Amino acid sequence: MTMPNQTAPIPKFAKRLNGLSNVRLPLWALPADWPQQAGEPVNADIFFNQGLIASLKPRSSQHSDLWDLQGALALPALIEPHAHLDKTFTLTRSRPAAPGLLAAIEAMHQDRQYWTAEDLRQRAAKGLTWAAANGVTHLRTHIDWFAATPPLAWLEMNNLQQPGITLERVALAPLGLFADADNANAIAQAVAQSGEHSLLGGFIHSSNWDPAAMSNLLHSATRWQLNLDLHIDEELSPLANGLMWLADYLSQHPFPGHICCSHGCALASGSEQQSRQVLEVLAKHRVTLISLPMTNLLLQDAVVGRTPRQRGITLIKEARTAGIPVLIGCDNVQDAFCPAGSYDPLDTLTCMLFTAQLDSVFDQHSRLICDLSALTGKLAAVSPLATGSPASLVIFPGSDSVTWPLNSAARLVINRGRLTHQRTWKQELSHES
Ligand SMILES: [Zn+2]
């Protein structure tokens, strides 16, 4: 086993750092002409200025004013592209009566009786605190809507403050709510008037399929200039046609905003030719695909006493080949949909590593938990470590590039040039002993 690196003495919290030296960064985040040695990128020196990155250079001689990381791995700030802060941490009071997605939805509806402002605030704040400690600086939460007016959770989440985390809210309404054009317009208007970081979403499934409602959803988002994040085709049926319909729609009606499609499990159930055609159109329209491996593995093909035969994971490799940006998220954490979860993107990536048989995880696929431009649709031709970007990184002092993200619970979080969280090997060992 590789022993943890010993980083130099840890700087004081809140102290503004001048930068980091001798740090091992992932290949995808480095310039194309970055020098390599023995097949690995050489370590870097990163200079900070006023909380921003001033420059990124291959390691040179000693810089006494920088924090020497002695070769430790580091990533740009992590993102959590898909969570449900309104449902999180409700498992102990609301367990589903049966396996699978629809039983979890029923259990969640039962749990709503407890969703007071205080209950929502307390659970959501806990989720945000966990995410921040893990190195997340941007979190997108979906929030269930049950009518055309905003639910209490939508309003409460707007008041949540977690230093260092940008919070986005997506209105997650069942497709049926968009069947009426006036309703669809009212939902979109309410979201648009909720301020920045607000998006329109919907739950689109063969159990509620309605192409007219889909048209209303797309039209209302266009009218109110909203970006979309859809729960779409979260099932294994080859008859699920949400993504296929969306590809067809976009071919005829270019959408002015950005669209994220979450789940898309059914893509893996159709024919290769069918999925390729859908992916080609989605790529053309800059749609981002978000895969949620933990809940999909738990909820798809779930039957009591029977080993699941299917994985429920969308076609992330084919999507990347087609040029579609891909991200992975935690989805539900400790609720009726998923009893486990940690708000740690590394746990999600570990799950995906085995599920989708990923290789070169640190140098290539760590991008799946860092790529903010893929989430927002804002074109970023440059790396998140480019000059002028926030000096926000996560350092993994106990890891190496071969075994990461396993054995990587220990970490140090730098947010805009300041050390904000630390979880060291030493602390973990004393905790366990
Ligand atoms: Zn979800």
From TrEMBL:
Q: Which superkingdom heads the taxonomic lineage of this protein's source?
A: Bacteria
| Molecular-function GO terms, alphabetical | cytosine deaminase activity; isoguanine deaminase activity
Pinpoint the Amidohydrolase domain residues. Answer: 207-400
What Gene3D superfamilies does the database record attribute to this sequence? Answer: Metal-dependent hydrolases, Urease, subunit C, domain 1
Alphabetized Pfam families for the sequence: Amidohydro_3 (PF07969)
Gene Ontology biological process: cytosine catabolic process
Q: Which SUPFAM superfamilies match?
A: Metallo-dependent hydrolases
The protein in question is named: Amidohydrolase family protein
Species, as recorded = Rouxiella sp. WC2420
